[in-house]
Structure formats: structure tokens, C-alpha cells
Amino acid sequence: MFRLIFSLSVLIALGGALDLNHIGPYIDIPLKPLKTSAERIREHGYPAESHFVETSDGYILNLFRIPYSPRLNNQLERKPVVFIQHGLFSCSDCFLLNGPENAIAYNFADAGFDVWLGNARGNIYSRSHSTLTTSNPKFWMFSWHEIGTIDMPESIDYVLEQTGESALHYVGHSQGGTVYFVMLSSRPEYNAKIKTGHGLAPAVYMGNVTDGIVAGLAPYVGSPGVGADLLSNQPFVPYNPQVQRLLDSACGGEPAYPKYCETLFLMWAGNEQSNLNATLLPQLAETHPAGISTNQGIHFIQLKVSNKFRQYDFGAKKNQLKYNQAEPPEYPLEKITADTFLYYGLNDGSANAKDMKRLPQFLPNLRLFHEVPNPTWGHLDFIFAKQVKQEINDPVVQYCKAYEEGY
Ligand SMILES: *[C@@H]1O[C@H](CO)[C@@H](O)[C@H](O)[C@H]1NC(C)=O
Ligand SMILES: *[C@@H]1O[C@H](CO)[C@@H](O)[C@H](O)[C@H]1NC(C)=O
Q: Per the database record, which ranges form the Partial AB-hydrolase lipase domain (predicted)?
């Protein structure tokens, strides 16, 4: 995951360094406007709402909602709620790109759910704060610990208040699963607000990660020190609308530059290309990477080095001040009592099967521990594979429906 997206980020950063106003006239590509998740949803004839949640520490998070399905015409019925949370470098768009037939957000809407899509602090949708600007390093002083202990619980409370429900279904991909484990272990009172929780390749234990960037950077930033200090508290590759529009225009529809787009796709997909939906490339390029703080990446790499699922390591001195102990505390996973469903793939370099197998022992209410049978199933396949509807979306929706019907 890191390698693919990192490569694209580097490319986009490089592209950003060139003056596109100069290149533009020569290659003559008309730039298309960017779309929000709400616009993408409406384009397919579904109703969409945009909501803003201000967190207790001032971040303004943009949530999107598909309140009902035009196919069911169920506007006035009471509907169970599902909250879907994206992974690292991603945003709410990822659950929409496969379109109404194959993307999980629409699949849930068409199964009669009220669908909410979260956006973590720092991504393209959640880049405002009540007092800080994004050029202030303080804005970027967070990791997925804060996303799990603040953004998720406060977004969930907002959704429950808006819908009048007392609990909801939760689906998280990758980091969206990480923050589920952080939330329910650190704030166990939230277990009662989860009807079922689905971790699609959640990144929790990372000792066996084989992914190039994580393993490669581990010696430099995996432990507190100069490397980590230099890199911490920054946005990781600012989102560059102009470059992304260029990519979309160059590779969308009948690609004007097929070779260029092919190379780009290989960089994205790496050895996962066998399952990824190639038609998605232009939209992927347009929407990703959606922005993170470097601390999120550093925190994941620390997990690889420590082989533990624990809080951010600031170094012994600062840990002592913050945690009252020299080593960061581990998340108490045994406090996760919500009904949990886990899904993992055998060709996933980020949520490795070996690391996944350490989780069931902690989860008293684990209802499903599912290995996707296709041996080539990789980390991004949980969202973007051609077979994602049959392999992932349909079963997840079915388990949520089964819960509603009393299992
Ligand atoms: C890798 O996975 C195995 C099996 O789950 C586990 O015992 C081990 O601690 C993990 N981490 C490393 C670094 O081997
Ligand atoms: C692949 O992506 C395209 C473009 O978004 C979408 O229309 C199509 O349904 C997707 N196919 C599958 C099998 O997911």
C-alpha cells in the first residue's frame, strides 16, 4: 500500500514542481473540474448530503451521507445506519468510485441502509480547524491515535444524534480498521454504539509487514530519533488539484496518453494489478492521495519495529511526561466487546495474514475471521478489485442485515 501510493505521491509532487501553466498549452489538455463525494453520488442519481462535525480539539470533519436509495424509494422508512471509514492516504471517495453496481456505499444504500462516509482529519475534506491553519505545524500534530480516540467517536455521536439511532454498523478499510481498534479499546463505552464492526484488512499488528516503504523506512523513522523528528508534524504530499485534474484529463475516457497512463497504473497497482478494476485509474489519480500527517505513517512504521499495537512513541523522555512510562502503552484490545468481523487477503503486504492471526485471541465477540479464498487478494482489492462486490461488499451487507433480523 505504502509503496504504490508513495510512488504516485512522488510523481504528483514532481508534477507539482513543474509549472503546469507552461506545459498546458503544449500538450493541450482541457482541465476538468474536481468533484466532491456529494457530487459524485448525485451524478449517479442518488441523494447526497454533506455534513460538518467540529471535534472537541477544533478539527472540522466533512462527512457525506446517502440518506436513502432511489431504487427502493424508501425515503420515509426508518433505516439502520452504517458508517464507513477510509484508509491511509484515502478519503470518502474511495467507497464510491466503483459506481452504483459495485461500490459498497451504494450497495448498502440499495440494501435499505442510511449510509454515512467519514473523513479523517488532514485529508482533502477535513482540512479546516477552528483556530489553526494548515500551514501551522500544530495542525499536523496528530496520528491515527487522535483519529481513533476523537474523530471516530465524535463523528459517530453526530451521526447517531442526526438519525435518532442509538447504535450503528461500522465498516473500516485498513487505517479505518486501525481506528476501530483504537476507539473501542481506548474508549470502551463506544462498544455499545456498535451493532457490528467490519475490519477490511485492518492494520493492527504490523510485525510481519513486507511492504517496501514500511520495511525500508523502519530503520530510519521506526524508533524515536533524528529521522522521525525531521519528518514529524507535516502534511504528507499536499494534495495538488491541478496535477490531479491533468491526470484525469489525460487518462480519462479514451486516454490521450495511453503509455503514460499504463505506467501510472502499474505504479499504483504493483503486483496487485491482477484484481484491480483498471477502469478506475483516472478517478483514483484524481482522488488520491487524499492527504495525511507524516505522523500517521511514522506511527505505522513504529508498529512494524515494535511488533506491538501501541500508542505513538515520542522517545523515553517525552513518553514519561505523556504516558508516565518510558515505553508507549499498548492498546488494551481485550476491551473490544462489540460484534466484530475481520476480513483479510493472502497477498496483502500491509495487513499481513500472519499479523491478522494474532487478533482473534483478544476478541470475545469475534463473529467472523474470513480469509478471502482468492490467493492473489491484496490490500487495495478490498475496495477496488473487479470482484469486490461478490467477495466483500455482499457478505458485509448480508451480515449487517442478518444482525437487523436478529442473526
Ligand atoms: C509475525 O506473525 C507471527 C504469527 O502470528 C507472530 O508470532 C510474530 O510475533 C509476528 N511478528 C514478527 C516480527 O515475527
Ligand atoms: C470498475 O470501475 C468503473 C468505473 O468507476 C465502474 O463503472 C465499474 O462498475 C467497475 N467494475 C467493477 C466490476 O467493479
A: 39-99
